[in-house]
């Protein structure tokens, strides 16, 4: 999936002092933890221990756990995990790019080093934190709208429902990967969804 991202704050503390930890590395670490275990399962104390900072430094740097989650979502969207952006890089029409997106999901969502699925789709699933849920929902909406706008270049009349079709399929693939489905299971599914998408894309009305 994709999401929009804002510029990350510079690694400086109050009054321009340098922080005693690497901000980029901290966000990467948090991103991996949130991705692997979900937002609610990762506590502030654990994050602080993993990042090597005490609570005052944590809150000074990120404001809150949700603030760090927002940074993690931004970092995720800017990297290789942004499979729609990656699929777009090779060019092609709507059917080709969507097929490539689904294929990438089938290859990247299965578990690797304890991490499976998509952070945007599953990072805050069932979370009790309304701020984290809102951040996740905003990222999902941005992803879905990017797909819709791309599809609209060829089928403006079907862009809404076809975008939903792809998003729902990818959400299912992410959830299946987190439940243990591997590439051998997800790839045939992605190919079936790609064929169905192409049929719908070219259908009348």
From TrEMBL:
Signal peptide, first to last residue: none
Keywords per UniProt: DNA-binding, Transcription, Transcription regulation
Annotated transmembrane regions: none
Alphabetized InterPro entries for the sequence: Homeodomain-like_sf, HTH_TetR, Tet_transcr_reg_TetR-rel_C_sf
Annotated region described as Disordered, given as residue ranges: 1-20
Residue ranges constituting the HTH tetR-type domain according to the UniProt record: 20-80
Name under which the protein is recorded: TetR/AcrR family transcriptional repressor for divergent bdcA
Lineage: Bacteria, Pseudomonadati, Pseudomonadota, Alphaproteobacteria, Rhodospirillales
């Amino acid at each position: 999936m994709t999401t929009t991202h804002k510029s990350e704050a510079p690694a400086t503390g109050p009054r321009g002092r340098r922080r005693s930890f690497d901000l980029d590395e901290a966000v990467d670490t948090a991103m991996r933890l949130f991705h692997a275990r979900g937002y609610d399962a990762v506590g502030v104390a654990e994050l602080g221990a993993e990042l090597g900072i005490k609570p005052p430094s944590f809150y000074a740097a990120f404001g809150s756990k949700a603030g760090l989650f927002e940074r993690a979502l931004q970092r995720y969207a800017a990297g290789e995990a942004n499979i729609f952006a990656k699929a777009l890089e090779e060019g092609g029409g709507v059917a080709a790019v969507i097929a490539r997106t689904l294929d990438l999901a089938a290859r990247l969502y299965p578990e690797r080093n304890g991490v499976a699925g998509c952070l945007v789709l599953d990072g805050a699933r069932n979370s009790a934190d309304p701020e984290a849920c809102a951040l996740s929902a905003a990222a999902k909406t941005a992803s879905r709208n990017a797909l819709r706008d791309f599809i609209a270049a060829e089928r403006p009349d079907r862009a809404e429902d076809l975008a939903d079709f792809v998003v729902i399929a990818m959400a299912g693939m992410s959830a299946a990967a987190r439940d243990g489905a591997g590439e051998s299971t997800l790839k045939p599914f992605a190919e079936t969804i790609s064929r169905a998408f192409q049929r719908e894309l070219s259908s009348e009305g």
